[in-house]
Amino acid sequence: NAGVTQTPKFQVLKTGQSMTLQCAQDMNHNSMYWYRQDPGMGLRLIYYSASEGTTDKGEVPNGYNVSRLNKREFSLRLESAAPSQTSVYFCASSEVGGRGTNEQFFGPGTRLTVL
Amino acid sequence: GQQLNQSPQSMFIQEGEDVSMNCTSSSIFNTWLWYKQEPGEGPVLLIALYKAGELTSNGRLTAQFGITRKDSFLNISASIPSDVGIYFCAGRISGTYKYIFGTGTRLKVLA
After folding, report:
1. Sign of the C-alpha dihedral, residues A45, A50, A55, A56?
2. Dist CA B2 CA A113 (whole Å)
3. Residue B61: how many CA atoms within 13 Å on its side-chain side?
4. d(Cα B24, Cα A105) in Å, to the nearest integer?
5. Does A100 touch chain B if contact means CB atoms closer than 8 Å?
């Protein structure tokens, strides 16, 4: 099993450009998440999808959109990139509910720079 | 927003020493998770805790779910150079799908 995979690993954008970050998981988890990580800060939740067909805002959703394409895939889109969106983006998945099923697993991250 | 305080922010220790770090929350959690992150990598899950008072070990790592359900502790015994990294706690509030993360403890081990 690959776990959680993300593409691309690195990306440089100019201000105003758009792009989509891709995430896929092969653990049959219901819930998927997008976080950003900035220096000196913990992981901050951008959006999450509790189950296929649903998405909800997290702590820092402004400037982003998401799509839960199917149970396996959850994408994050930046419509008009800004320098403040320079960060490392992590996708994660979990099976929420009941003892022993709340573990959350992370992908390797996408390092995004907006010039 | 939800607050999760993690301390210490950083630690410099000698190889062989024991390490302790903790997280405290303003909210009650029903799950505590502890992660390790190395440079350029995603966080890797170390230990998961589900019940107040629970004590769980993973090799030299031991974590506890606080009785108040608002705190958790991670101990590393007999540290080695490969323990270097940033350790994060995370908690999930009962009835939600969201996880709240601490700001991390940066550990450096001096050989």
Report:
1. negative
2. 28
3. 16
4. 22
5. yes
Q: Where do the DSSP E strands lie in chain B? A: 4-7, 10-14, 19-25, 29-37, 44-49, 55-58, 61-65, 71-76, 85-93, 99-101, 105-110
Q: In a 3-state reduction of DSSP, which class is residue A7?
A: strand
Query: HSE of B82 in the Cβ direction (CA atoms, 13 Å)?
Result: 1
Give the model's confidence band at A23: pLDDT under 50 very low, under 70 low, under 90 confident, else very high: very high
Q: How many degrees, rounded to 5, is the angle at CA B72 between CA B69 and CA B77?
A: 155
What are A56-64's contacts with CB under 8 Å, separation 24+? Answer: A56/B97, A58/A33, A58/A34, A58/B98, A59/B1, A60/A36, A64/A34
Q: Which amino acid is at A78?
A: L
Q: CB–CB of B104 and A42 under 8 A?
A: yes
| Pairing state between β B71-76 and B61-65 | antiparallel
Residue A60 touches partner B, C-beta closer than 8 Å: no
Report the residue of B38, B56, B98 to disrupt the A interface, i.e. the one with the largest count of A CBs within 10 Å: B98
- What's the rounded Cα separation, in Å, for the pair A49 and B83? 33
Q: Tell me: the pLDDT tens digits for B59-93?
A: 999 999 999 999 999 999 999 999 999 999 999 88
Distance, in angstroms, between A63 CA and closest chain B CA?
19
Give the residue-averaged pLDDT of A85-91.
Answer: 97
B109-to-A56, A112, B86 alpha-carbon distances in Å = 40, 30, 12
Report the DSSP beta bridge partners of residue A111. Answer: A10, A88
Q: Cβ–Cβ of B42/A90 closer than 8 Å?
A: yes
